[in-house]
Amino acid sequence: MTEPPILRTAIATYRVTEALKSGRCGPSGCVSTSSICRPSAVPRADGAEQRFDVSEMAIVTSFRRKPTGKPLVLLPVVLAARFQQSALICRADAVLASAPPTSPVRRVGVRAYSQTTGVWLRGIMHDEYGIAPEQIRWVTSRGRMSPRRAEPAGVERAAPGKELVASCVTAKLDAIHRRQRRPQDAAFRPVFPGPRGLVEAFWAKHRFVPVNHLVTIRRDWSNAIPGRRHRARPPLPRRAAGRSPAADGRDPYPMSRAALQRGDRSALRYSLAQGLLPGPLTMAEIWEGLPAEVT
């Protein structure tokens, strides 16, 4: 009897992946072995060794990998998405207006310039508030985004051993952005006040939730997907910061395939404008290799 093939996966634990990672469900006709890791560690591991068949990946990372010819196919399966303004925080006593003006926000700490949350944040600040990325000094806590490419102008590396939160406390940084929770400390507050109102305004204007992480599959596995005639399903549910269920239990910010496409175009535009891509990419190139059954 032929042993079923092993599908190696590297996906963090979310509400929508618990059943897969616990073994309660899995792909038909193969054995899934999951790697439990932090979301931020998945792209680095997969890029370095290509040892996963299915992996979680930040959307900007997937864009940057396209020109390299990596044998990965992006799937329209959303694992993480959130409204981004609440990720930018400052000291509670900072003198900032209701929308961040250019002059007081001179230095912002980020984990890495190419981090997807930062890309969204810079793009939204430019589109919604007229603050161009080059008007701010971006201080990163990690090294260069690529050993083969120079960092964009206005990016500098934090001094070794200097933690961004501590630098914000001592006013060496005007603000920092946090990918998930902000420090549980009364010394900090969001730069953008009224996050709930900002969420509603962003949704009303754009009709999508900014996507952070999607799923990629190795091209050889993508090509092996059997041809089945069925209607394409929308992306999986995801947790969005600032979201609260409606009274009837429905998601007030549903992410349809059309919404995902709108978000993709914005993320792609921001990535190119911020110097993260060597040249333009088309939507066809982004989704190249996607099985016909899910297009």
N- and C-termini, Cα separation: 34 Å
| Beta-strand content | 15-25%
- Largest sheet entry: 6 strands, mixed
The SS-based structural class is alpha/beta
What is the number of domains? 2
The tally of beta strands, per DSSP, is: 11
Shape: globular
Description:
This protein has 295 residues and is an alpha/beta fold. It has two domains: 6-82 and 210-294, D-Maltodextrin-Binding Protein, domain 2, CATH 3.40.190; 85-204, D-Maltodextrin-Binding Protein, domain 2, CATH 3.40.190.10. The protein is 27% helix and 18% strand. The chain contains nine helices and eleven strands. It has helices at 18-22, 41-49, 59-65, 116-129, 164-169, 195-206, 219-223, 257-273, 283-286; strands at residues 6-10, 31-35, 54-58, 72-81, 88-91, 107-110, 137-140, 155-157, 175-177, 188-190, 211-218. A six-stranded mixed beta sheet has the order 8-7-6-9-5-10. The chain has a five-stranded mixed beta sheet with strand order 2-1-3-11-4. Helix 4 (116-129) links the parallel strand 6 and strand 7 (137-140). Helix 4 crosses helix 8 (257-273). It is globular and about 65 Å long.
Summarize the structure.
The chain has about 300 residues and is an alpha/beta fold. About 25% of the residues lie in helices and about 20% in strands.
Which features does this protein show?
295 residues; alpha/beta; D-Maltodextrin-Binding Protein, domain 2; six-stranded mixed beta sheet; five-stranded mixed beta sheet; 11 strands; globular
